[in-house]
Structures are given as C-alpha cells and as structure tokens.
Amino acid sequence: MKTTLNIAMLLFAANLCFAQTTIQNDPTEPYGRPRPDYWFGQHDRLSPIRGEVGEGSKPRQATSQFSTALTDSYNFGTDTCVNDNPPGTSYETPYSSGAHAIAARGDTVYLVWRSDRLISGGGKTTIYFDKSTDGGNTWGTDVRITDSDSAALMPALAVGKDGTIYVSWTDFRDASGYRHVYFAKSTNGGVSFSPSVRVCSDHELYQAFSSIAVNDSGLIFVAWSDGRNINGTKNDYDLFCAKSIDNGSSFLSSVRVDDTGLDTIGQGGASIAAKDSCVFVSFNDERDENGYVNVYVAKSINYGQSFSPNYLVNDTTGQVNRDQWTSSLTVDDSGIYISWMDNRNGNYDVYYAKSADGGITFTHPNLNLIDAAGQPYAQGYPSLCCDDSGGVYCAWEDHRNDYNWAEQIYFGFSKNYGDSFGNNLHVDDRPLDDSAWLWRPTICVNTSGKVFTAWEDDRNSPSHVKTDIYTTAGSFTGVAGRPAEPISLNKATLHASPNPFRNAVNIEYGIPAAGRLRLSIYNITGQLVKTVTEGNARPGVHRATWNISGNAGNKLACGMYVLSLEACGKTVTKKILLIK
Q1: Are the C-beta atoms of residues 118 and 152 closer than 8 Å to each other?
Q2: Which pTM value belongs to this model?
C-alpha cells in the first residue's frame, strides 16, 4: 500500500543535541552501588506455552507499542519505607537476578532483600524478609533468613499456591571459598525460615545469580550461573537449573540450560518462571561472534528434566555496538513475556518481546517500552510480571529527568496480553527535580490487578552511599472488565490531541467495517517516517499514541507532520504540529 502525500506548508525544525550517558550497572556483584486498540478481539484460552497454538494465538508482528485506551492509567500511593533499621544507616537492596524479589497474594505482599546493617558491628551482608498484610501500607518486623555468619546477597523470591515462601540467594559460607546458591522456606507466613539448604552439590566451583520459581504443584525450580566448565581464567559461566520434589528439603542433580556446549561462551543473569510442566529461563548470552551480549530463552516441557535448544529473543542480529542484558521473564497460559535493557539506540532503553508459540518465536520488531526513546538518558534493570487476566506490567529505573544523575522509578503496562502498552508512568512520590537515586525495582501483581513495586532508595543519604527499601502500590483507574460495544460509524474518522504537542500525541481513529488498515505519519515532503500500526482491525474506535520517534527509533525534529489513516479504500489525513 503506497500513498503519496503532496502538502504545501512551512516546515520548521529544531535540532536537539545532548551529551550521551549510559547506565553503569554492576554486572558481577552488588557490593555497594555503582555510579551513577486495548481490546482487539476475543482472547482464546489455548495454552501457547505448551505448544497449543490456534487461531488468535499464532505468532504475529508487533502492533503499535503504545495503544492502550487513553482513559487507562494506574494511580500510585505514597512511598513507604520497609526496612526497620534506622533509615540512611546501611545499604539495603532488592537486587536479584531476573528482578523477582517481591510477590503478592491478595493484599499480602512479600519482599526479600540484601542488607548490610550488620557490617558496622563486624558482621556480613545478609538476607532479610518482611511482609505487609494491608496492601503495602504498613510493614512488619524484618526477619533474617540466612543462618550463617558468612556473607549472602542477591535473594530471589517465589510464593507457592499454598502460601509457602521460597527464597534462594548467593552464599559465601562454604570452606572451598567459592560462592554457592542456598535456599530456605517459610511455612508460617514468614515468621521464621527453615535451615538453609544448598541447591547444587554437584561441584564446589562458582555458583551465583540465582532465580527461583514454583509451579502450582509445589515443584521448586532454581536457575543460576555456574562455573564448573570454566576453561582457564576467563569467567565464561554456564546456566544450570535444579528442582526440588520434596518441598525444598533437597534438590535433584542440576541440568544444563544453555545449549552452547562450549566453555568459552558465557551465560548469566537467569530469570526463571514455571507453569504446569513447563519451565522457562531467559538469560544473557555471549555466543554472538562479534562478542555482543544477547537475550536467549530455553524451555523445558518435562518439569525441568531437560531443556530445548535456546531461542534468540532480541532482533538485533548483525547490528554492531549494542548489547542486551538483565532480562526479566514472566509467563501465563497465553504466552511468555520478556523485558531487558538494550542499548541498540546508543543509550540503554527497556525493550520487550512476547512469544505466543511456547518461546520458539518472539514479536519482531521488539518493542521499546520507553515513550521518550531517543533522548540522551538511560533506562534499565526492568522487572516484569503478569496476571491471568491479560495484564503485563513492567517497572524500571529511569534517568529521564537528568537532575544530579538521579534515577526514578517508572512503569508501563498492558491490558491486552502484552500486545501493546500504555504511556510510561512515574511510580515513586519524589519530585521530578529531586536528587535522590532510586533504582533496581522489583514488581508483582495480585489477582485484582493491583501492582506492588519496591526498590532501593537513597533519599535518606545525602552522600548517596546508604540506601533503604521503599515500596508503593498502584491501582488501576481505567476501564475494567470487558470493553464497551464498538461505536457504529459510517466513515473513517481520525483525531489527534493535544495538537500542537511536545512529547507525545494521542490518536483516536475509527473505521466503519472490519478490514485492513494502516495508521502512518509522514513529513511534509511525503516521506513516511513512522508506521504507528498496520493490520486487520474490528469496526469501531481505536486508540494509539505516538511518542515522536521514527521507524528507526530516532527522535524526530520539531515541525509539521501529516497523520494518515488508510482503511476501507479511503485515506483520511490530519496535520499535527510537533513543537519544542
């Protein structure tokens, strides 16, 4: 479908130049901080994660990345400090591999984190737990999980269907001098935890960066980075997984997850999820011949006894000067969802992909979840979760307000099984020009669609050395349940607001009959600069948002553009003005 637009009008543009900044995350060990259309149709209940692919669940091209209904939003409350030691006196962080350190059952919220509060008295870093029974408004007394005086860090959390709490972490207690992965559980709501259990005793070499999951049958799965096959001095770790069939009293022998077969290729940063007999692990992978880091997924359909060939998630094969890593994975009956930090555009953004065929293919192009992509600031360390009603939720650390290198917590969500996302929302209660650093978020959602987010926060430490754990809850304020019946139209319609606009424009378009449509944006010379969405659609009114990025992800210059809707054999256009 080709359209030529001949429009005579004045064009003005402003070239915006910024200095480049990137996130400097700590990929090896978090000992202290480093520097700084909503409803497109009925959803079938087949289970693509088990390979049950039918009409409506086939792999498809990604649609517009920001097309959640304009009335949809989340309202976040006041931030609450979780840790009960004096604020601003130690380093506290929920940092974990896969960013899953929080879980919720109804209004009961569970959280684990690493704490350095004992160091001042000669102790070591250790793992703590706390919970809230009133939706995150208040928290109880912190409970120490680890039962050793040796250092422990990077805890990961899962909560079973019966309310049992499961935690894994990296532990330094063993005489070999290597760190290993340990596990503990609580069957009394977190009042106390069982003695620690070592997850893998197959060897004494390096084991770290664990992620944990439990299925509805109570089988526990832990994945981690493993150094048993290191060849020489290079830290080219592999990915392994072990499961427990006795509720965590012991773990079976570990199974390799990656399929590289070589000791010179590194994997790490595991994120694991389990659904019935299926186990999924996403991870960072260095098998690219140019040395770049990619995101891969492995799948088991036999309760973790063996894993499939690995599948590449990101769509940047052949592109130079880029890396993708720190993935976070979540699954439901309909699909597999993954987010990760990605610097394909020069700065780190948060990207996302979905698989509806059990992890064999993922949506291409990948979606950039940042609604102001192309700006010279960075986003990273995403945490992803989903519910069983079509909701997919992502939180991340965000540098967009660029004040004294401050980071804040932002959030994006989908209510259509991850097909499209709404505009980014500021989560924490700090002013946009605040100098505090808030980062490494972890997010969960309950069955009612209420989301809970926690992060490390240095608002009580002017020197940016000490951090506390803060959390907040968000409630959905948009249209709940099934959508209204489509509005009856006798012609195609197209509206945009605000107009003029600065950072984003909301688009409402309607079609009188079902069919194929394309919503595009052209500059005044008639050159296509952005395909907002293209594909088959139902009759009625639909909505999308354009965040002033081009098809290549670049930020477009200020000036006049033409919005074009091609549908039902007709073309409707509207002028829109982007101002500085």
Answers
A1: no
A2: 0.74
